[in-house]
Structures are given as C-alpha cells and as structure tokens.
Amino acid sequence: AYPGPPGANLLVATLEKGAGVVQSLAEQGRLHEIVAVVADEIHLVGDTSRGASLERLLAKMRLLAVAAASPRATQADASAE
Q: In terms of CB atoms within 10 Å, which of 13, 15, 60, 73 comes out highest?
C-alpha cells in the first residue's frame, strides 16, 4: 500500500521505495494517481551499482504510462465500470 498519509500529494523517496510504491499502485490499478516523477539521481543511469534499478523503474513507468494512455486500455477501463 501507499506509504504516505491519506490524501498526500507528494512523496519523496529513495529509488527503492519509489519502485515499491509504483509497483503497489500498479497492482491496485491506481497508476493514474501519479502526475509527475522527478528523478534526482539521473546521474546513476549507467552506474554499476544502482543504475540498473533506476533504469528499470523509469522504463517500467514509461511502459505503464503508454499502456494506460492507449485506446485499448481506455476501452478496458470503461468496460470494467
């Protein structure tokens, strides 16, 4: 579940915690609640220790955003209601 208080509008987290929040929101079908992401550690891309985790998180968020914005996803959401 989302680690912040109910109604919170901002989450500042480590890369690992942020990945967990994104995964949790995805599993709950709540990715639409994410409005913006700021990756302050972009210099880690390509780093041998944590770079892969950052790249994986950003790639996953991009794929999920594209999938959520596709007409097929919109039709599926409308059908489920």
A: 15
